[in-house]
Amino acid sequence: MPAAYSQERTAENAGLEEIVVTAQKRSENLQDVPVSIQALSTAKLQELHVTNFDDYAKFLPSVSFLGDASGGPGYEHVYMRGVSSSVLENHSGSLPTVGVYLDEQPVTTIDGVLDIHIYDIARIEVLAGPQGTLYGASSEAGTIRIITNKPDTAAFAAGYELGANQVDHGGTGGSIEGFLNVPLSPIAAIRLVAWDEHKAGFIDIVPKSYTFPTSGITFSDAPFVKKDANYVDTRGGRAALKLDLNDNWTMTPSVMGQVTSTGPGPFGFNPAAGDLNTYQFFSDATRDSFTQSALTIEGKISDFDIVYSGAYLARNQHESEDYTDYSLDYDAANGPYTLDNAGHLINPAQHIIGRDHYTKISNELRVTSPKENRFRMTAGVFLQRQVHDILQDYLVDNGGDALGSVPPNNLSVPGWPGTWWLTDEQRVDRDAAVFGEANFDITDHLTATAGIRHYTFDNTLYGFYGFNSTVDSGEGVGSCFPGSQPFRGGPCVDLDGKSEGSGNSPKLNLSYKFDPDHLLYVTWSKGFRPGGVNRNGGGTLPPYQPDYLTNYELGWKTTWFDHRLRFNGAVFDEEWKNFQFSFLGPNSVTIIQNAGQARIRGVEGDLEFAATQGLTLSGGFSYTDAKLTQAYCPGGPAVCLVPGTENYAPSGTQLPTTPKLKADATARYTFAMGAGYVGNLQASVVYSGARWADLRIIARDELGEMPSYAMADFTVGMEKGNFNADLYVNNAFDRRAVLSRYAECDITTCGQTAVYDLPSTPRLIGIKFGQKF
């Protein structure tokens, strides 16, 4: 925490600091922007000890998230304002509804949010509601923007932070972070940032043996028994160069790289095994690495601001995953199918080796007129191409003899000994758009805004997925297209699907500024999410269509008591039409359908209050009522009349993932200690109501409702000059909050399956200190 910040708060001052955001593609005071925005400043991020996505998401009332069976950082799926229908989101499924940006460049990827380490970050901006006019297709429900600190030619600066912590029921963690800002000349500067963090594990793998009913083979997890198995190591760095080409033009190239590796254990535990315990028959280790290279050029032509931003993102995810739960159910239901070359029954336990390679190329060019003008506008063009190379290898290669790979028991996918199922595909998502947004001051107090984005999308999915024909003649080799050649490592092509379309995302806004401290606005806006390819049945199922979110919003930005109290909020009513819903079909292959209609109503707000000299109170809340307004039944209304319908949810069903109520509150007191020291005390509380992990009634009965929870964090710290130190306790009362709940095998496919809880980190006690120069 910068010393100047706390001393400013202690000296207290006439009011709160001004927050500048760039949500509308120009720098503006947060209180002047007629958009629902929550901003976490540099100081706030440091005070709350935010280092990753989970840390800041809990302080964002409009944001919810769920992890999946892979668990861990980089695999979370993020939602805003309750716009969520399914947690079954994977490499060949729907695009996200929330866009994530690093500075000017989109870093949204298909299967999990990019978990960028938070250090030397200027602010995080969270824009709730459809942002499609300026931010495009993956911002149907909202946008999260991570803004880094930029190189500064004015002066040399450097800093570091060191930390250590201990997790109850777990191990010891620590971190080292540092930055360096070096002016190279009056027109050039470079900023270097680096970090290395170890997060301790707290989930234990405990002994367990299973006996498969068909073969009688007993399978033990003894080789994987381990304490604190879900540790995380994150290493990375960022470099940016600022070059002032002349008085009007600046070029900023940058590069960021990060590698996150997790231990052999999962991030969910099996309650049947005990608190924070699980059984593990194969490794669940992951490695997620990415490199983001970007270039931003800013300048002026006449009075118009010109910005070009381009980026190339390369991301690699390597994972291994235990799939024994599925094998247990499959073996019990399907009998003696898992054989070796000699025809003998073998251990059917499966595990998955996954390799996902993403590349994303994005380019945006926009022009902005002077913000002082009565009429002002932003207009631009956007191009993006995402390629996702997918390899999922489902292996049976244990318990002695391997899965049969030669006749007559050639069960393995050709060319892949031991592979029961193979997914080897390439997905390409192409987006293009032209956009514009104009503001006109009707009077000194009343401003009208109109915007529109015309978009096109062209999405393809191509390759191989499935079994050998001796296992299933209708999915895999048995359904190969006549005359098709091998695709990469796959034996043939049995999938070649395409979805394309175009449309418009409009926005209308009217804002009235009563005085410099009080603003009221109304907004009508639409967001969309592109359609895509159903791979089930070799792409014979029709593509799923785009879905659309229409938003009606009334919001306010207010400052009171001589700028000591800031209270912002919005009420909203959203209609989600034709929304995309994912579920497991035959052979546990994901199917996406356009399910129907939902309505989301709610209110959200955040406030900050400089209550007394040194005491600041802040917090936020959201109340979200998100539910179906039309029954979901994939087979049609007549099918839903049949008792026991699997994929069914009646009208009025609450959408999954999002609690009705989410809130947080923080109190921070700074005080002079003498001898130049400034002390601080801080307490934070976060609350989340109950949530469901699925839309369908039968799955809810199986998984159960995730209960509400409240957690408290406490900090005591001090600083002097350029030195600061904090002692903190997170989840001080060691609450076992369930952040996500999942099963390895869908209830509609398996007769019974274990249910896993992905918990919050237990009580964590840590110390952190640093210096800035």
Protein architecture, described:
The protein is 6% helix and 51% strand. It has one domain: Beta Barrel (Maltoporin, Chain A), CATH 2.40.170. With 773 residues, it is mainly beta. It contains seven helices and 39 strands. The strands form eight sheets. The chain has a 22-stranded antiparallel beta barrel. A five-stranded mixed sheet has the order 3-8-9-6-7. The chain has a two-stranded antiparallel sheet with strand order 1-2. Strand 6 and strand 7 form a beta hairpin. The chain is globular, with a radius of gyration of 27 Å.
Poorly predicted segments = 1-14
**Corresponding CATH superfamily:** TonB-dependent receptor, beta-barrel domain
Strand content: over 45%
Structure summary, number of beta strands:
39
User: What is the CA-CA span between the terminal residues?
Assistant: 13 Å
Q: What best-fitting shape do the alpha-carbon axes yield?
A: globular
Biggest β-sheet: count, sense, barrel?
22 strands, antiparallel, barrel
Q: Please estimate the helix content.
A: under 10%
Helix-strand makeup class = mainly beta
Question: Which keywords apply here?
Answer:
mainly beta, 51% strand, Maltoporin, Chain A, 773 residues
In short:
By secondary structure, the chain is mainly beta. It has one domain: TonB-dependent receptor, beta-barrel domain (Maltoporin, Chain A), CATH 2.40.170.20.
SSE diagram, text form:
Elements: H1 3-11, E1 20-21, E2 28-29, E3 37-41, H2 42-47, H3 53-57, E4 63-66, E5 77-80, E6 98-102, E7 105-106, E8 121-128, H4 132-135, E9 142-148, E10 157-167, E11 172-185, E12 188-199, E13 204-205, E14 209-211, E15 218-220, E16 232-244, E17 250-262, E18 277-278, E19 286-301, E20 304-322, H5 324-334, E21 351-368, E22 375-395, E23 419-441, E24 446-466, E25 495-515, E26 518-529, E27 547-560, E28 565-577, E29 580-584, E30 590-594, E31 597-612, E32 615-628, H6 637-640, E33 661-674, E34 677-688, H7 697-703, E35 709-720, E36 723-730, E37 738-743, E38 755-759, E39 764-772
Parallel strand pairs: 6-9, 13-18
Antiparallel strand pairs: 1-2, 3-8, 4-5, 6-7, 8-9, 10-11, 10-39, 11-12, 12-16, 14-15, 16-17, 17-19, 19-20, 20-21, 21-22, 22-23, 23-24, 24-25, 25-26, 26-27, 27-28, 28-31, 29-30, 31-32, 32-33, 33-34, 34-35, 35-36, 36-39, 37-38
